[in-house]
Structures are given as C-alpha cells and as structure tokens.
Amino acid sequence: MSDWFESWFDTSYYHILYKNRDHNEARNFVEQLTSNLNISPEAFILDLCCGKGRHAIHLNQLGYRVHGVDLSAKSIEHAKSFENEQLTFEINDMRNALEKGPFDVVFNLFTSFGYFDNQEDNEKVLHAISKYLKKEGILVIDYLNAKNIIKDLPMREVVVSEGIEFQITKQLVQNTISKEITFTDKEIDYLFSEKVQAFKLSDFKEMLNKTGFDLIGVYGDYDLSDFDEMNSQRMIIKAQLT
Q1: How far is CA 170 from CA 110, 197, 220, 231, in A?
Q2: How far is the C-alpha of 30 from the C-alpha of 56, rounded, in Å?
Q3: Numbers of helices and strands, H then E, in the chain
Q4: Going edge to edge, which strands form the sheet with 133-144?
Q5: pLDDT for position 2
Q6: Same domain, yes or no, for 134 and 158?
Q7: How many distinct structural domains can be found in the chain?
Q8: Where is 76: in which H helix or E strand?
C-alpha cells in the first residue's frame, strides 16, 4: 500500500480541491523571502516539494536560477512545461539526495514536511538537505502552526469545486494532524487522507540541531510578521547550515 502522499498528490482531485490557491500570495511570499534573506542574484535555489511549480516559477521570474523537485509525476510533468535554461524540474523523494547542487538556498513551502510517521524519515529529509546545501546556506521551512490549529480541532467543512462536494474532517490523532477527504464523482465514492506531524517550534529546534542547522529566525505569516506560537497562522522557519 502506498503512503497517503503518493496516492493523493498524484490525483486530479487534489488539484481540483486546491485549485484556488492564491498565485499572488505565492508571488508576494517569495518576494518577501528573497528580500529578507538578501539573496544574491547569482544564487541557485531549490524548491523542495515544488508541486506544479508556482513558487519556483515566481522565483525564476525574479531572475534566480531555480530547480524544483517533487514526488508527484503529474505535477512535475505540468511544471516542466515552464522550464528554461534557468528553471528545471525533476521527480525525487525529499528523503533522497540530489545530484544537482550545491544550492545556496532551499525552500520547503506550504507545509511540505512532517509527512512521515517514522521520525527518522522526517530527520532524513534534513540530512539530505545538508548534503546538497552549501555550507552556511539557508533553509526555509513554511509549516503550519500546530498549536494554533489544534485549539480548533476537531473540525468539519465542505468545499465545492468543479461540481464536486468535498467533505473534509480534520482532527488530532496521536500528535498527527489528520485530514480525511471524502467525495463522490461519477457515482464512485472516494476517500483520501492528509497527515502531518503536529511539530512545535521546540521540535524543529531539536531536529535542526541534530542535522547540522542553526535556527536563525521564525515568522508567523507570509508577510514575515513576528511569530506568536498560540495565534500565528504559520510557522516559517529560517535556518542556516553550520
């Protein structure tokens, strides 16, 4: 049986459910990040778990050399239609090392971490990054703020997209934020899941320290406001490889 992210991310329904993701928000976010980090125009950036490439494409439009990787073959197939000499994509599991690099900056955005039940696998991602990131290079992880989300769980909602009614249930199960997505299309019933670990800031500090990183900044939203562990919507972590 495949992991939830292997089956769900590669379906057309995943992209239907999340079709209204804000590209302007993505563009503004990468502009904020590149300005805050004072990234050199010559920098080589990795977009780790890039999906269809919306952040990578905006980074490339800002003039950066960018490489995007994702496990979803269909997402990479779509992203490759935007390739040019300074923008490339490939299929890769984020736990595995890359032949490309070394990179000056690695972006891991939109809660694309903490997918694994086995903590060693989550740390394996950071170990892999440390192999292809330059010494003193920067890692940015954009993660949900678990403490803020947990206080509103369990939660139910309905999202209608392209005529499909998605029934979504979100709950905390053994320190995992679990989302079940059920719907019917063409008289066929479907059930998919999304599961991420409810990591707190202290958890990230421990994992980063174990894998050779120093935590150098934390922000609470896409405008890079100060982080408030009880109230911020996001937990955007900036770390440096020592």
Answers
A1: 17, 13, 22, 19
A2: 9
A3: 8, 11
A4: 87-91, 65-70, 44-48, 103-108, 133-144, 234-241, 213-219
A5: 63
A6: no
A7: 2
A8: helix 73-79
